[in-house]
Each structure stands twice: as structure tokens, then as C-alpha cells.
């Protein structure tokens, strides 16, 4: 492996480790998630006003999800067209991210005991709140299956575009990466307003998605393709 890519993977590993520790520290035992969720909940009527709002549930959650599925299908078609091109491995990374990122997130949700805000007792639900640091030490009678954030993963595979033209076009990489992060945060905000996810769920989903993209980049040998 070229020294450039060995250093790249080392930097990413260190950044992922540091950011994971930062997230654990940021949300550990301080109820920050609850403070961020409170403004979107009506404690008078004990309801999430935006939970079933048309713009949030239908337009964003269903409509934009459909658009991103079409985008994913278009990217798969492009990857197929490029299967014998010089940048085949790069498009293979995008195609793999389309399948791997949402799949791993969904598996995590099925295995996770963590609950959505609308199921937490503070908001009229049945379950106590706990953060990721207490994931393996908290006993729950009924699993919540609400972590990571599945809806965010519908768009977080787009992080693969940050490495599509890296390192030769770093401006494209920055814009693609920041655009994907902004979209994920926007989707995460909508879900938080509905009571579907806490903010930490969104940030951890972004973390997991980027980690998967980096691992796929290495496993698929994208580093073997020379820069244009």
C-alpha cells in the first residue's frame, strides 16, 4: 500500500477513535439529549406536535426517502457502466455504501435496546432514557430498537462521494462530504422534531456511516487506483 494511503487510513482511524470518545463524553450522564429534545415536545398536552405533520412525515420522511432511493438506483447504474473503467473501484465504493451503510444501521437497530424519544417516560412513554455509554449496563424490559437512526442512513451512504475523487479533487471531496453531512443533519433534525430520534442517535449514525465508508474504501482496494 502506498505511504499516502497508509497515512490516510491511520489518520481516519485516529479521528474516528477521538470522535467516538468525544461523543461518549458529550452525552454521558448529562441528559443533553433530553435538553435538546424538550423544545419540540408539548408538555401541556404531552404530545409531539410535529410527529404526524404532513411536511415532516409525508414530504420529508416519505417523499425525500423516495427521491434518495431513485438517486441510489441511478448511482448503481453509473457504477455498472463504470465497471470496466479506470475508476471502477471508486464507483464500486459508492455502490457498496448504498447497500452496506443502511444494512448495518438496520441490523444495529434490531439489536439495540435504546428507545425513541416518543417511547421515553419523560415524554409520556414507557421506558427510561439512557445514553450510549450505558448501552451494555442498563437492563430494559422491552427493547426500543431505535439506535442508530435508520432514516438518516437513507442519506448517509452519500458520504462515499467524499472519497470518489479523493485526493486529486479535494474541493469536490469537501463539498460532497459537507453536503452529505448537512443533509443527514437536516433529516436528523426533522426526526428529532417528530420525537423519532435523539440528536446523539443522528451523530452516532454519521460516525458509523463514515467508519463503514472508510473500511469499504480499504477493503475494495480503491487506493490501488491512481489519481487522475
Which regions are unreliable across 5 or more consecutive residues at pLDDT < 50? none
* Mean pLDDT over all positions: 93
Backbone structural class: mainly alpha
Number of helices: 7
Sheet-strand content, in percent, reads under 5%
Strand elements, count: 0
Distance between the termini: 18 Å
Instruction: Output the helix-strand order.
Output: HHHHHHH
Shape: globular
Largest sheet: none
From the alpha-carbon coordinates, what is the Rg to the nearest angstrom? 19 Å
Structural description of this entry:
- The chain is mostly helical.
- 59% of the residues lie in helices and 0% in strands.
- It is built from seven helices and no strands.
- Helix 5 runs antiparallel to helix 6.
- The protein is globular.
- The model has no long low-confidence stretch (mean pLDDT 93).
Give keywords.
228 residues; mainly alpha; 7 helices; 0% strand
Short recap of the structure:
The chain is mainly alpha-helical and 228 residues long. The chain is built from seven helices and no strands. The radius of gyration is 19 Å and the shape is globular.
Amino acid at each position: 500500500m502506498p505511504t499516502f494511503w497508509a497515512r490516510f487510513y491511520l489518520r481516519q482511524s485516529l479521528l474516528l477513535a477521538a470522535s467516538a470518545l468525544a461523543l461518549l463524553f458529550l452525552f454521558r450522564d448529562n441528559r443533553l439529549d433530553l435538553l435538546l429534545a424538550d423544545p419540540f415536545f408539548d408538555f401541556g398536552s404531552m404530545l409531539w406536535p410535529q410527529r404526524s405533520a404532513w411536511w415532516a412525515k409525508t414530504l420529508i420522511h416519505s417523499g425525500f426517502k423516495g427521491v434518495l432511493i431513485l438517486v441510489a438506483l441511478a448511482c448503481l447504474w453509473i457504477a455498472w457502466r463504470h465497471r470496466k473503467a479506470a475508476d471502477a473501484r471508486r464507483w464500486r465504493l459508492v455502490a457498496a455504501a448504498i447497500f452496506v451503510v443502511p444494512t448495518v444501521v438496520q441490523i444495529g437497530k434490531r439489536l439495540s435496546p435504546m428507545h425513541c424519544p416518543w417511547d421515553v417516560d419523560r415524554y409520556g412513554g414507557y421506558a427510561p432514557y439512557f445514553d450510549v455509554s450505558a448501552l451494555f449496563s442498563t437492563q430494559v424490559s422491552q427493547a426500543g430498537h431505535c439506535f442508530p437512526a435508520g432514516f438518516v442512513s437513507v442519506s448517509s451512504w452519500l458520504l462515499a462521494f467524499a472519497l470518489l475523487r479523493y485526493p486529486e479533487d479535494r474541493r469536490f471531496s469537501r463539498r460532497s462530504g459537507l453536503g452529505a453531512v448537512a443533509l443527514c443533519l437536516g433529516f436528523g433534525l426533522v426526526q428529532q422534531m417528530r420525537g423519532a430520534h435523539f440528536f446523539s442517535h443522528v451523530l452516532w449514525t454519521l460516525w458509523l456511516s463514515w467508519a463503514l465508508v472508510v473500511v469499504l474504501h480499504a477493503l475494495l482496494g480503491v487506493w490501488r487506483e491512481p489519481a487522475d
